[in-house]
Design goal:
The structure is a single chain. By secondary structure, the protein is an alpha/beta fold. The chain is built from seven helices and six strands. Strands 3-2-1-4-6-5 form a six-stranded mixed sheet. Strand 2, helix 4 and strand 3 form a beta-alpha-beta unit. Helix 2 crosses helix 3. The longest helix has 16 residues.
């Protein structure tokens, strides 16, 4: 049976909400989303860090956390997922692709991302009214104007980005102040961590995303475009 699509919200109201939350702490954004959508809200976590998970755990205990297991994650990432799951007793849902591991990433990275990220995310969001991400404006030019709250037209549900306004210093300060567990690769030059074939360390002064799909013009996997 096909899930019934969530009704389209008033876009002007969403824009007003987003503007009102522009200077609000991330906890207030998460709180608003949790109050509005409850169990119809899912937090999509890459587990590059656990900042948004830590914020959500304080405001929305029991919220569904979704992790896309592409089958190409670093062993360190899978270890980190389990560490964070245990630390917060997460309501964790792991989504996997419906294809076996292959070498598509070598010839067609966009196609690989479509099969291993975009399609599993679509399944994870079926029946939901809203999804929440750790997207930040400073990460890529394509994210520079990301709102706090918007309507994800392609997926037919509300999208919430509680950390959109955060810079790298904000993330590092929060991790330090909260004494959060750090991904094992973070101290090895990996400032943006995805699948192992497409993630590489970056040098001092390089952009954090320079190690993703290095040598190509690709900067997004398709989840946020």
């Amino acid at each position: 049976m096909t899930a019934t699509a969530a009704p389209i919200p008033d876009l002007a109201e969403l824009a007003d909400v987003s503007a009102s939350l522009e200077s609000a702490p991330a906890s207030a954004v998460v709180g608003w989303a949790w109050d509005q959508y409850g169990d119809d809200l899912v937090l999509a976590a890459s587990f590059q860090d656990c900042v948004l998970i830590d914020v959500a755990a304080q405001v929305a205990p029991g919220i569904e956390i979704m992790f896309l297991d592409t089958q190409y994650h670093f062993a360190e990432t899978l270890w980190y997922v389990e560490e964070i799951r245990r630390r917060y007793d997460l309501n964790l849902r792991v989504m996997k692709p419906e294809v076996a591991p292959d070498n598509l990433w070598q010839q067609d990275p966009d196609g690989c991302c479509a099969l291993r990220k975009v399609e599993p995310l679509a399944r994870a969001l079926e029946g939901k009214a809203a999804w929440m991400t750790g997207l930040r404006r400073v990460e890529t030019p394509t994210r520079a104007n990301a709102p706090i709250v918007s309507y994800d037209i392609g997926r037919g549900l509300v999208k919430v980005n509680p950390l959109a306004t955060w810079g790298d210093d904000d993330v590092e300060g929060y991790v330090r102040d909260r004494d959060l567990p750090v991904h094992p690769l973070a101290d090895r030059g990996y400032r943006s961590i995805g699948c192992w074939p497409c993630s590489h360390p970056v040098g001092n002064g390089e952009d954090a995303r320079a190690g993703r799909w290095a040598g190509t013009d690709k900067i997004e996997c398709g989840l946020h475009t």
